[in-house]
């Protein structure tokens, strides 16, 4: 038996019909779908490599598009949080700094993942035929699988806690679900 009281309580603070909230959900769901579809299409056709003249140039262009889409997603996430009510009981220094700490850990995982993989390793270079010499097993991959995804999720969770935002918490759940589906699809 599942206790849904927490979800009912959370939904009491969130207007899921708000346009900004819907845009945030759509941008969160779109990003991993987009990069996985484009990467698999490239792997099957090599069309982007042909258009850009090389797999490296195509990978860098896809990476740039993914970065822009991530900025759009973060903007939509932030705007959705700002347009929804705060949890008054969470608007304290200790919750704010807890959120900062969670975001810092997430940032550590994201940055260290990027440094371990490099640009093409991070942005789907293997689908372009750009392979690493060996599997990366150093930190943060020695601590957890998919540290870029879970680090990103932690950043959104921390951001939501810093802003005492029930909408942010719900959107963070959407981020986690989207990444879970992406991991299943990629695996």
TrEMBL record:
- Compartments where located: Endoplasmic reticulum membrane
HAMAP family in UniProt? PLMT
Q: Which UniProt keywords apply?
A: Endoplasmic reticulum, Lipid biosynthesis, Lipid metabolism, Membrane, Methyltransferase, Mitochondrion, Phospholipid biosynthesis, Phospholipid metabolism, S-adenosyl-L-methionine, Transferase, Transmembrane, Transmembrane helix
Topology of this chain in the membrane: Multi-pass membrane protein
Recorded protein name is Phosphatidylethanolamine N-methyltransferase
Judging by the UniProt lineage, the source's domain of life is Eukaryota
The Gene Ontology biological process annotation of the record reads: methylation; phosphatidylcholine biosynthetic process
Q: Where is the signal peptide?
A: none
């Amino acid at each position: 038996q599942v206790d849904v009281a927490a979800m009912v309580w959370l939904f009491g603070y969130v207007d899921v019909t708000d346009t900004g909230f819907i845009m945030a959900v759509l941008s969160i769901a779109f990003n991993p779908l987009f990069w996985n579809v484009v990467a698999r299409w490239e792997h099957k056709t090599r069309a982007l490599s042909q258009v850009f003249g090389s797999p490296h140039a195509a990978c860098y262009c896809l990476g740039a598009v993914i970065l822009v889409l991530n900025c759009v997603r973060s903007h939509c996430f932030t705007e959705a949080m700002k347009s929804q009510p705060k949890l008054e009981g969470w608007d304290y220094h200790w919750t704010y700094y807890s959120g900062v700490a969670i975001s810092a850990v997430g940032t550590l995982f994201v940055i260290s993942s990027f440094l371990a993989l490099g640009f093409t390793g991070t942005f789907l270079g293997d689908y372009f035929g750009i392979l690493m010499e060996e599997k990366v097993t150093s930190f943060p991959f020695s601590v957890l699988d998919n540290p870029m995804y879970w680090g990103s999720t932690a950043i959104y969770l921390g951001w939501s806690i810093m802003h005492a935002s029930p909408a942010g918490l719900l959107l963070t759940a959407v981020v986690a679900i989207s990444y879970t589906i992406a991991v299943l699809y990629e695996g």
